[in-house]
């Protein structure tokens, strides 16, 4: 009733195209839009994470290094407690990984796939470094207790600042590399989508 004869032929034609393994042109444009959107979000989230790690490397940790033990322990634990929140963990830390994976799945038959896959590996490596090195050091400092009642000198001495800073630089470079790879993949995808 609501379908015209021409619409029926278009739908049957699209079904036959799909059955042959071809993608109808209008599906292709929708997939290109979704692919570009996922790559754009992955690039932005990865850049955000690289920026967070870079701020720790270039401002936060060097600044704290110049403070007394009580200030160091108090400020570090306060910032660590604040950063562990749903927005940071969901959108940034894990979001960059998940959206990069989605971008890779949407790019399976595209020229950008190797770049997206490499970015995913680098982002995963940054997550592993964070969980294996930085988080345990953070948790050990928080577990020591209230800075007003503990031996802050002993807590700071037990916290391996050099190790934390070294591995923060590692994860910063991993995320910067992933950001660059995703930016290149986004360029390739945009160029490919613009071609007839």
From TrEMBL:
Coiled coil: none annotated. Keywords: Membrane, Transmembrane, Transmembrane helix. This is Putative membrane protein. The chain crosses the membrane at residues 36-56, 87-108, 115-137, 173-190. Pfam families: Anthrone_oxy (PF08592). It comes from the Bacteria. It comes from Kribbella jejuensis.
